[in-house]
Amino acid sequence: MELTMNTAVTKPHRILLAEDDKAWGDIVKRNLESVGYQVEHCCNGHEAWEEFQRKRYDLLLVDIMMPKKNGFELAQAVRVRNSLIPIFFLSAEKTMDADRLRGFELGADGYIVKPFSLLELQRRIKAFLKWTRPVKSELLVGHVFGDYTYNYRKLKVYKNNNMGEAIATFSPTEAKIIRYFFSRPNIIIKKDELLMKIWGKDDFHASRSMDVFVGKIRKQLRIEPRVTLETIFNVGLRLNVPEDLLPEKITIPLQNKLQ
Asked: Name one GO biological process term (predicted).
C-alpha cells in the first residue's frame, strides 16, 4: 500500500537524511522521493552539516552512530543555527533511555526505531510536517503573556518593560510545547494528542520525555502565579489562564521565512 501526497503542493518538502549505511540510506531516499519529497542523503555527520548550511530543509532524519560527526553532535550544531526545524533520530532498538533523553534535551522532536517500515516513516513525516508547516499567511513566532514575552525564535522570555535582557531561556522542544498550550488556553489537551503533535508518536519513551518537559514548563510558568498547568487525571493537561491574561500572538508574514 503506497502513501500518496497532496498533488496540489507546488513546492515539495525537502528532507536531509544523514545515514552512514549507504545501501539503506539509498532505499529510504528513493522511497520518500516516490511520494513527492526531495531528499538529500549524506553518509556522515560532517557531510550532512556542510549540506545543511548550503540549502533550506524542512526536516532532518539523523542516524545517531555516524563517522566524523555523530547524530548528537550534528543536532547540536543544527540547533545553534535553526531552533525550529524538526529533527528525528534514527536509533537502534537497544538505545539507552539516557541517550534518548539526551537527544530530546538537544532539541530532537522524536525517535524512529530501527528496524522500521518505510510506510511508517512516510506516515510519521507526513503527520509531523502537516503540523509544523501548515498552509497559512503568517508564522507564529511568539506570545505576549501578561507582563512577559515568549520569543520562540530566540528561545527566551523577556519582561515587557525591558526587552533588552532575557529573564529566562527554554529549549526548542519546550518552545513547541509552550506554543501549543498558549495557542489553546483553558482547553483540555489529551496526552496522546500532545505526544503526536510534539514527538510524532505515542509510546513509553516519548511519554517519559513529555513528563520531563512538562515539569520544566511548570517552572517556567511560575512567573505568572495566576496561571496553572493542570493535570486532568487519565485525560490530559489544561493551561488555566484568567480572561484578562490570555496570550496574544506575535506573528510575521510567512514570506519572511526562518533560516
From this structure: regulation of DNA-templated transcription
